[in-house]
Please model this.
Amino acid sequence: MTPPSIVILTGAGISAESGLSTFRDPDGLWQRVRIEDVATPEAFARDPAHVHAFYNARRTQLADVQPNAAHLALMRLEREWPGAFLLVTQNVDDLHDRAGSLPLHMHGELRRVRCLACGARHGWAADLSISTPCPSCAVSRLRPDIVWFGEMPMGMDRIEAALDGCGLFLSIGTSGNVYPAAGFVEDAAQAHKVELNLEPSAGSELFDEAHHGPATQVVPAFVDRLLREWA
Ligand code: BJW
Model:
């Protein structure tokens, strides 16, 4: 039998056990800062220094965290899966990348910047300020390469093509509150749909199968089972 093509969507919950905060849990980022102050284009236009400070702190924090067993299990699945495979992450951290996966970062990346003057994108590890010049055009209009509310997520054509006809859809560590990602489970209508999350998500009833628990436990166990069945 041909192995099913897989699309995997991950969210902040997969990185929680590495030490990164989620957004909507009781200790999440949105309990400490207001979305409208840091995660909209209007916030950046109003107070770019404040938005830079928020993302500088999160970029700095990446140096202190490591991929966990769930990231590593997905890397193993990507390497060993005999069929088509796409890992889509909403996360702006680089833990999938450092585990060795090749994720599509639909909400952008902390370690990238975009120039509002010339459009160039650059890898970026340092702090950003309103006076940091663009390495391409030298104008000081750099912003974090992050998808804020009201902006178009990245790679949607590729994601929609992969969802259309995939055989297995996995949703891992996401609360299912933010669109369009929260709608992928419905876009993958024909797939077997599996939720791996600490608790039932907002769209839990749309899945065919669910395993609730910490990602470092449920993800490696599910990957082992898949690879035993198919690889
Ligand atoms: C664990 C765990 C452990 C914890 N193990 N699990 C009204 C209706 C519908 C849509 C809209 C609407 N009004 C506006 C919209 C659109 C809007 C939207 O969805 N708003 C909703 C809030 C209603 N969306 C947008 O604006 C998007 N763009 C857009 O729609 O463009 C138009 C378009 C049209 C058609 C097609 C395509 C596009 C852009 C969204 C940008 C989101 N940006 C953010 C912040 C920027 C990045 C950053 O600063 O980091 O991205 S918001 C934030 O939420 C971040 C995340 O990627 C995203 C999702 O959060 P996630 O990952 O699900 O985290 P949590 O905290 O919510 O959940 C964590 C889960 O993990 C929980 O369930 C825990 O239980 C679990 N967990 N520990 C396993 N150890």
